[in-house]
Amino acid sequence: MNASDHEKPLIDIHRATIWRGSTCVFRDFSLSIGQHEQVAILGPNGAGKTTLLKLVNREIYPVAADGSWVRILGRENWNVWDLRSHIGLVSQDLQNRYRDKTRGLQVVVSGYLSSVGVHGLLARRVSKDQIKKARAALTDLGVGELADTPLANMSTGQQRRCLLARALVHDPQTLILDEPTSGLDLAASFDYLARVRDLVSAGISIVLVTHAVHEIPPAIRRVILLRDGRIVADGSRETVLTRDNLQAAFNVEMRVRELDGYYFAYPDERGSLQET
Ligand SMILES: Nc1ncnc2c1ncn2[C@@H]1O[C@H](COP(=O)(O)OP(=O)(O)O)[C@@H](O)[C@H]1O
Ligand SMILES: [Mg+2]
Q1: Along the chain (276 residues), what's the average pLDDT of each consecutive run of 10 residues?
Q2: Total structural domains in the chain?
Q3: Which domain, by its residues, includes 181?
């Protein structure tokens, strides 16, 4: 990248329309995220969060139309390899694509190939240095001893860390995490969130995608609230994570509390108590 590229937004979506099969998920949708923002995209199931990520990751494309664009770091066209070195993605969707027999180190090394498996000839394209770096990435994330362990024999949390290591071998400036703690117990979630915090401290930008309000770490300043392919609210966490906004996005009555920089939503049972 040259100097001017640093000014370009990470994601610049302008008046895009996006279909998945016969569903129009986004119509005339616009969103811009800067390169050094720490952002959460929050919304209920089906809001379009994963679709948005697939758009950024070049797995799906918008309807071509005049005055409509999707630019990543100022460019509309990317090859997947170049893109991976700028943006790392970790998702359950990606995790599901691996076979149970794939071993920890193979998962990480597959990141160099932008593929899921490492088989036969492909494996020879990976250099010794790359393998060394892949091992180091596993060790950094506390799963160095799982290099030769098949995914089937790991906990979901350990699998997720292998995928995070896979994204990190490219030294991306930005990490996109799609529902990173789904399926993890409290210890594994907290561990994962602590690693996210460390990455933020290390200068990596995070785009966290989640349906869970309490999983947005305080370090994430901007929250984009999504429902049915539309932005319900977008701004600082304090202005967006209000009861009114969350009720509108999730379509349910709730109460909201802030505690030590985290936000919690819980059922509003006062209404039903009064009725009895
Ligand atoms: N492969 C697909 N084919 C058709 N519709 C899809 C497909 N994937 C997702 N959708 C639809 O797109 C909408 C948004 O889904 P998604 O982006 O996965 O939401 P989220 O990640 O916020 O839960 C939903 O209405 C969903 O049913
Ligand atoms: Mg999703």
Answers
A1: 73 96 96 95 96 90 92 89 87 82 91 63 73 94 94 92 91 92 90 87 94 92 97 97 96 95 91 48
A2: 1
A3: 3-275
